[in-house]
Write a structure and sequence with these properties.
Layout: H1 3-50, H2 61-76, H3 86-109, H4 114-132, H5 136-151, H6 159-187
Helix pairs in contact: 1-2, 1-6, 3-4, 4-5, 4-6, 5-6
């Protein structure tokens, strides 16, 4: 085998690994991001228009919708190559999901600014994912999440939901679509 052939094989393997990582990464950001925006807007509109704080319970639909979307996605798309990176990232995000659910449930028992902690966890998760898959846009967009999270202490009431959703769009949905576009570009 010539050295050029070896380099071509290595380059092809690296390309397949990158495609696998992007394939495994963009979908969760879009599924969870859009589910969060849909539920968040519903909660905001129902709470502000009907003045009924009981609609905050709609947030508990988020894990149901997110997990269902992920299972559907998993059945429809199998990765070409499983990168060693995807399993640890999935474990980290599962741990974050448990933390997010614990914070959400405890916020109904103890009064505190739950959106602050949820956005903080999501920002950390996005940053870790971006650093792990070497995707700078995801890292930088997570900084937007940290900034919005810090500024939310100034805003009170349901308007905090809007700031939260702006951060979700910036750090999950926009990078998710960019990853999807990069994946499409890599395939051509």
């Amino acid at each position: 085998m010539r050295p050029e052939d070896s380099l071509d094989i290595i380059a092809d393997m690296m390309s397949q690994t990158r495609r696998s990582v992007l394939q495994d990464s963009y979908a969760p950001f879009l599924i969870w991001g859009w589910a969060t925006v849909a539920i968040g807007l519903s909660v905001y509109l129902l709470v502000t228009l009907l003045h009924n704080p009981g609609f905050y319970l709609l947030w508990f639909m988020l894990p149901v919708i997110g997990v269902t979307g992920m299972k559907i996605r998993k059945r429809q798309h199998k990765s070409e190559v499983k990168a060693t990176l995807t399993s640890p990232l999935a474990s980290i995000w599962k741990m974050f999901l448990v933390l997010l659910i614990c914070f959400s449930v405890s916020s109904f028992l103890i009064s505190y600014n739950v959106l602050f902690f949820i956005l903080l966890i999501l920002s950390i998760g996005c940053y870790v994912t971006g650093a792990s898959i070497k995707y700078p846009l995801l890292q930088y967009s997570s900084i937007i999440g940290f900034i919005v999270d810090a500024s939310r202490w100034i805003v009170t009431g349901p308007l905090q939901i809007i700031l939260f959703l702006i951060a979700i769009i910036a750090m999950m949905i926009i990078p998710g679509y960019k990853m999807k576009e990069d994946l499409r570009y890599d395939r051509t």
